[in-house]
Specification:
Glutathione S-transferase Yfyf (Class Pi), Chain A, domain 2, 4 strands, binds glutathione, Glutathione-S-Trfase_C_sf, GST_C, Glutathione-S-Trfase_C-like, Glutathione S-transferase
């Protein structure tokens, strides 16, 4: 029996995809999964296909999309190697799915249970306590027609507060040992925790924050630059994912 995931309305490139397929737009959330895939491609030669949509046209609210992700938000990852195809929604779940699917050596994860727990803590921290605030700052500060000072101030303060939490971790304020990455022993290791966090925090300027606001987080600023230098990050945030 034909499965219900794809219909006549589903774009051909989505329903005819053979392996992993990503439906995305190069927003902070889209970039998380774009980065993970580009990193995996460099290490393992992982392949996938991509459909770029424009969320301003509300494509993500159409029936074909909601069948794959009832939440109606990008990005969505579909694993067509499963029968029926297996859709994954929510960026952190997508990163963790890709870790299992493609990262057999845990290059972007951890084999040690405690380090793995650390990575999950920071991944969840940003997913639950970072992105929602900075997303609302973008909404009320940039996109809302009505400018509500209380809302802008509230989400600006909360965004800076959670940046401060990242700064505590990276500076080693309480551990005595500064670190390069959010999770892992010693100086830490670049992992899904960083991949899930970086696309938002690196966009502080887009969110209307000023240099003087973020200068109080020197370790965070260095972490932003350190990750920006990665070839996979450059590809994932560049031309390749721009709508033609
Ligand atoms: N919690 C979701 C958030 C996804 C999300 O908010 N995506 C935004 C783009 S950054 C979106 O699709 N916005 C369009 C809309 O809300 O309709 C995740 O982590 O995947």
């Amino acid at each position: 029996m034909a499965h219900h995931l794809y219909t006549d309305e589903t774009p051909a490139e989505v329903k005819n995809a053979k392996g992993l397929h990503l439906v995305t737009q190069s927003t902070p959330n889209g970039k998380k999964v774009q980065i993970m895939l580009e990193e995996l491609a460099l290490i393992y030669g992982t392949t996938w296909t991509t459909t770029l949509i424009n969320i301003m046209t509300n494509e993500q609210k159409k029936d074909w999309f909601l069948r794959l992700d009832p939440n109606g938000r990008i990005p969505i990852l579909i694993d067509n190697t499963k029968n029926p195809p297996f859709p994954v929604m929510e960026t952190s779940a997508e990163l963790l799915y890709l870790l299992k699917f493609a990262d057999k050596d845990d290059v972007f994860g951890f084999k040690d249970e405690l380090e793995r727990s650390q990575a999950l803590q920071w991944l969840f921290f940003w997913h639950g306590s970072g992105a929602p605030y900075q997303g609302q700052l973008n909404h009320f500060g940039k996109f809302a027609k009505e400018k509500i000072p209380y809302a802008i101030e509230r989400f600006r303060n909360e965004t800076l507060r959670v940046y401060g939490v990242l700064e505590i971790q990276l500076s080693g304020k309480y551990s005595g040992e500064p670190r390069d990455y959010l999770a892992g022993n010693g100086k830490g290791k670049y992992s899904v925790a960083d991949i899930g966090t970086w696309p938002w925090v690196s966009g502080w300027e887009f969110s209307g924050l000023e240099k003087k606001d973020v200068e109080q987080f020197p370790h965070l600023l260095k972490w932003i630059d350190r990750i920006a230098e990665r070839p996979a990050v450059k590809t994932a945030t560049g031309e390749k994912y721009q709508q033609k």
